[in-house]
Amino acid sequence: MFTIKGKTGDWELVIGLETHIEVLSNSKLFSGASADYNPTVAPNTQAGMIDTGMPGMLPVLNKFCVDQAIKFGLGINAEISKISRFARKQYFYPDLPQGYQISQPADEAPVVGRGWIEIMGDDGNPKKVLIERAHLEQDAGKLKHDVHPTKSFADYNRTGVALLEIVTFLDTKNPENNSYITSPDEAERYLREIREIARALGVSKANMEEGSMRADVNVSVRRVGEKTFRTRTETKNMVSFKFIKSAIEYEARRQIEIYENGGTVTQDTMRYHQDDGTTSVMRSKEDALDYRYFPDPDLLPVIITDEQIERIRATMPELPSRTRARYTADFGLSDYDAARLTENTNISKWFDTAVNGNAKNAKSIANWMISELFAHPENWDERNEKSGIVDDMRIITPSDLSELVDMLGKNTINGKQAKEIFIKMLDGESGTPREIADKFGMKQMTDTGAIETIVDDIIAANPAQVEQYKSGKVGLLGFFVGQAMKKTGGTANPAVVNEILRKKLA
Ligand code: ADP
Ligand code: MG
Question: Which residue among 148, 159, 204, 238 is least enclosed by CB atoms within 10 Å?
């Protein structure tokens, strides 16, 4: 378990994430304006009457966004509510000119209810992170304060775009149920899993750099073994894995210090400062009551039918958790290896392409990927926020690796030569592994006849050592193997050499 050492003992972390992902859809949640806002689009060219809060405009629910939410809900093993409602949440800030945000109230069933997401826990085992809910709501626009010395500008292109907010569950009635996030690394893996599920389903680009995925981070600490939860703080609007991890750690240490100095933590909303990695109080936490949720009289309840759910379920692709199960069951991979290979759908696609249905090679390909490819960031930029990792791995392709593993399996080359070919490929040597092996004369000598001839020569040339070996100094076998490897320029298959030597010296 991840703990932080304080002056007076060890502390554990309790983390709750509220993740917002921008729903992929042609139009906004309640208006026909394009939802494809992006920095190249001129400000306010994709903002309709509803988005700009014109009086008398009636919102119309975009049913596709509801389907997207259902799809995501099915992807996180969640209950889908047959009926849910939209309400107005008080919001007074110029980036949302309606004066309220249309959302789904916290005390009512949202579109997506209880579910869970499986991640790799810090102990290397699969861990279920419970989800409390996921609801649809409107995004706000963007204010620009740095364009003019005395004026601020508002761009409403993003206003009203559908967001799906996914909230993790903390079982406060049963604090020993540890199906929640307990470390900065688990938080990152959880967010990556959300991202991969959303991308695999086409529900969102879920790209933190582009702002299509953001998270509010709730953190509290408690002494190891403590049975209740303590007060948490919430750090708003985090947009990078790195900052999220840093904010969690900073907040946890700050709270520990307060407790250890005899103070109490207040339930504040915090702001994170990217430049020095600290947090400061933005406002003290308003109660849900202060939002004054008000049922939106312009919108009918959202009714979802079983047929609708089943129609969407039928379109679901394989999700990372299912992929992991397939890797452990069909390929005999460990849970850890399966988790590493499904951190991202591009990685698993790469792996599947390399294996190409040939289960025999799967374990070896997995080993090469995890211990070699992942270790070479010039080839494998998995930490890169950009999508399209397969493209990023253009130096070594899936078929390159599968060919290399194949050659090894067939004893065409030995392990040392395989590593050499691998390094050459990384260095940009052109050609397939087979071509590279040919070019550099790397061939494993497996022709037993040829090896026997060489072994005979060595035995004839070293009668004294043969005598010693036969009288019990079996450690000399290594000497003979070395001689044979030298004679073959390192190309002999060491296992074959060993076997022949043992036979001839017996
Ligand atoms: P709010 O309505 O104030 O946003 P929620 O009850 O929706 O609060 O909880 C927001 C998030 O904070 C959830 O992910 C929840 O699991 C998490 N959370 C609640 N209590 C704690 C706590 N004591 N420590 C850490 N996280 C918490
Ligand atoms: Mg909340």
Answer: 148
